[in-house]
Amino acid sequence: MASHIIQVELVRLSTPIPGAFLVAVGVFPSSGWGTAELMPRKYIKGPEDGIYDFDLLAIKPDRQDLALTYRTASSIWTEIPADLRAVRVHSVSNSITKELNNKVIGDASTSPPTIDYASWIGKKLIRQGESPPADGQAFILEKDIPEPHRIVGPGSVGDEMFVEGRLDIYVDDKGIITAVGLG
């Protein structure tokens, strides 16, 4: 699933193809993600508010790195539900709702979270309960690291399970960050 939705457009189509055209742009947490797809959520009976929900999905890569990837997905509805008022496209961190005339409903913050993880390398990791260094050394507070995350130090025994979106922070025996990865 996309980590953040950037933009959603919903346009009514006229002849020769009556219907609606839905486009969504999202950010995925690393490079290598496959073609994006808008997956409609299934309803036994249409939603009471007339807002139909979609998830922005793509095939996960075998290996992830820190480069964000933008993906676009589109879908054509040839049969618009009679009660359609809007669509809502979901990601892990947000959703954007658009009315059929493209009016935005609610919060549509489109700025993806940006953290320069590479800039952490060489900084001291300050664990819970530790004090920042008094000598002016650059540091990162563990409490400020987004969840989920794990700290991997020399000789650490950790699981080998891949956890989508988890940040792995590698530190040396002095607590200096030597690498940051996903998994």
- Please tell me the total number of domains: 2
CATH class of the largest domain: Mainly Beta
Overall 3D form: elongated
Structural class: mainly beta
The end-to-end span amounts to: 15 Å
Question: How many helix segments?
Answer: 0
- The low-confidence parts are none
- Quaternary organization: single chain
Q: What is the average of the pLDDT values?
A: 80
Radius of gyration: 21 Å
Question: Concise description?
Answer:
The protein has 183 residues and is mainly β. It is built from no helices and 13 strands.
Question: What is the topology?
Answer:
Elements lengths: L3 E10 L5 E10 L8 E4 L10 E7 L11 E9 L8 E5 L4 E5 L4 E2 L18 E3 L12 E3 L7 E4 L14 E5 L5 E6 L1
Parallel strand pairs: 4-6, 9-10, 11-12
Antiparallel strand pairs: 1-2, 2-5, 3-4, 6-7, 7-8, 12-13
